[in-house]
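Deliverable D4.2, example record:
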Amino acid sequence: MAKANWNQYSATAASNTDINSIDIDEGMAPSNVNNAIRELMAHTADVVAGTVALSSINIDGGSITGITDLAVADGGTGSSTASGARTNLGLGSSATLDAGTSANNVVQLDGSAKIPAVDGTQITGIGLQGKHSIFIPAAAMRPTSSNGCGAITDVETTAGRPDMQVLDFDASADEHAQFQIAMPKQWNEGTITFQVYWCSTATDTDGVSWALQGVAVSDSDTIDVAYGTAVVVDDANLSAAEDLCVSAESGAVTIAGSPAAGDMTFFRIFRDVSDSNDTAAEDARLIGVKIFLTTDAGNDA
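Output generated by the structure prediction step:
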């Protein structure tokens, strides 16, 4: 085949026997040398002028200047500047930022695919899933109709200082109080835990055992249902009658009644005087209960 341009030349020297049909094989006419050189120069000029596009080119050094920016469609950026290239390639401002947790970084997930510890004080409008708490003060509870604790009582510490609203629980028998919560829809309907806020009427360091149990009731279901198994948490007085005592967080409390979204959950808290750790001979004054629950959604939508 006649070699009519650079693209048709062979890398095997012996295969190049003509230049555009001018014979340059062994035994050629001497006059073909001049004609072949002229034809080769014309082929070269075609490449320089862009009349003939090279099918492939390999550049492994040096530099190329003075050429038109290579279009994106041809594998280029369409620009001779970094900012213009980012625009043409559709890259946003994050293309110039480093990944990490420092100032002006794009946040990078850690090795467990979790967001690393960063300052989130300016994050708004995001409901975070996980462990949350609800505090129920004693004033939001009432003694149960059977075996109830004392009625809600206002106790003055010193005039002009905080008063306490408390429910008193005797040491002689189990006494109970009740409250209910329309649990948030984002609750995962699993177990809960609790902490008890209370104080004593004496100056000893004796123990008090608090127990909590619950049951969930759905729309149109009867409320005449049994509570779930009570879970006890022990605490001890701090040798002063009006010192605030905060118990440890309890073990898991299973809510009876197969909880579902939209349920009303009834809770009963009581002093378990039969527990071996309940040794205080005086009333224990309940100030409130903190309920810990786990959410699996960011809001109640």
